[in-house]
Amino acid sequence: EQIRVLELIHSDFTRDYAVKLSNYLRTTVEIEIADIEQLTYTEFIASLSEPTYLAVLNADPLPTQILIEVNLSLVFSMVDRLLGGSGKTSQEPRELTGIEHSIMDKVITLAIQVLQETWKHVIPVKFTLDTKESNPQFVQIIPGGELVVLIIFEVNMGEVSGIMNICFPYTALEPILPKLSPQQWILGNTRRSEKESLKLLQKNLSETQVEVAVELGIAEITILDFLKLAPGDVVRLNQPVHQDLIVKVEGFPKFCALPGRIGKRRAIQITSIFNKQEDNYGE
Questions:
Q1: Rounded distance, CA 77 to CA 157, Å?
Q2: Is the pLDDT assigned to residue 281 strictly greater than 60?
Q3: N or C: which end of the chain has fewer CB within 10 A?
Q4: Cβ atoms within 10 A of the Cβ of 166, count?
């Protein structure tokens, strides 16, 4: 059951991290969970290629560190894109340069941000980057015989694909196993969905652009008179001077307003919300 909850947690991680990486790399990134395995730490280290890219993260208040491993084919593709290339690269496996490490720091920082946001619904965890290593044999965060949970992600960037792993030692998860029950996850996820849905709705509304237009009045003229219109001609409208104007939002009457000026700019002052029942508009 706990493995299933870990899968649900990191399904959210894949979605949000893919969006952040897509924006950062300026290309479409797709991430999905390929598998979740339980194995010993020695087996995990032995499964990694050498060299590779390993980031060791502190995970306060969890008692042990966790690991993020990124396949070098992905690393070189990301670096190539961020340096102005297409992302297609046939680099031979080698250790990263200082510049390449600096570029990957941002990629890992994005992963840390998303992990913290994802895990806070289970337990607030402060992830921080401790060290980076290319040789897996030099990374010994727990004894070799201890169990780990390995979450394997498949990352696709255009024509380039590769594997990213997140390794959680069992000793890191043991204190929070009660919080990894399906019931706790469903309850927390329901609360999160309500709050996040409201925040998302407010954000989308605040960023929505709408067309606002003020109708000064209506006039009916013949096509012949219309064709003869020239600068300086006057068209008499059906709108009394002292009557409120109609303000339309996306073509629908929404407010009543009076015309005026602010400095040298034409302006309107909203006087009331348009009430169709009390107005003869459209008749």
A1: 8
A2: no
A3: C
A4: 21
187 neighbors 178 (Cβ within 8 angstroms): no
For 84, left (φ over 0), alpha (ψ -120 to 50), or beta?
Answer: left
CB distance 239 to 259 below 8 Å:
no
**What is the C-alpha to C-alpha distance for residues 152 and 167, in angstroms, rounded to an integer?**
9
User: Which ranges of 57-97 does DSSP label H, i.e. alpha helix?
Assistant: 72-82
**Across the strands, what pairs with 162?**
155
Contact criterion met (CB below 8 Å) for 31 and 163: no
- What does residue 254 show for φ and ψ, rounded to 5 degrees? -125, -40
Q: Side by side, which strands form the sheet with 252-262? A: 212-215, 245-249, 252-262, 265-273
Instruction: Compute the Cα dihedral for 262, 207, 22, 44 and give only its sign.
Output: positive
| Identity at 81, one-letter amino acid code | R
Spell out the alpha helix ranges (H) of the chain.
Answer: 2-25, 41-47, 72-82, 98-119, 170-173, 182-207, 223-228
- Answer yes or no: pTM beyond 0.90: no
Q: Tokens representing 169?
A: 């030692």
**Has residue 192 got a pLDDT over 60?**
no
Tell me the per-residue pLDDT of 43-89, one tens digit each, with 9 for 90 and over: 999 998 888 999 999 989 888 899 999 988 889 888 888 888 877 77
Instruction: Tell whether the model's pLDDT for residue 279 goes beyond 90.
Output: no
| Contact (Cβ atoms closer than 8 angstroms) between residue 79 and residue 72 | no
CA distance 107 to 101: 10
What is the token pair recorded at 85? Answer: 């290339």
Q: Residue 58 corresponds to which tokens in the numbers above? A: 């502190």
The DSSP output letter for 180 is: G
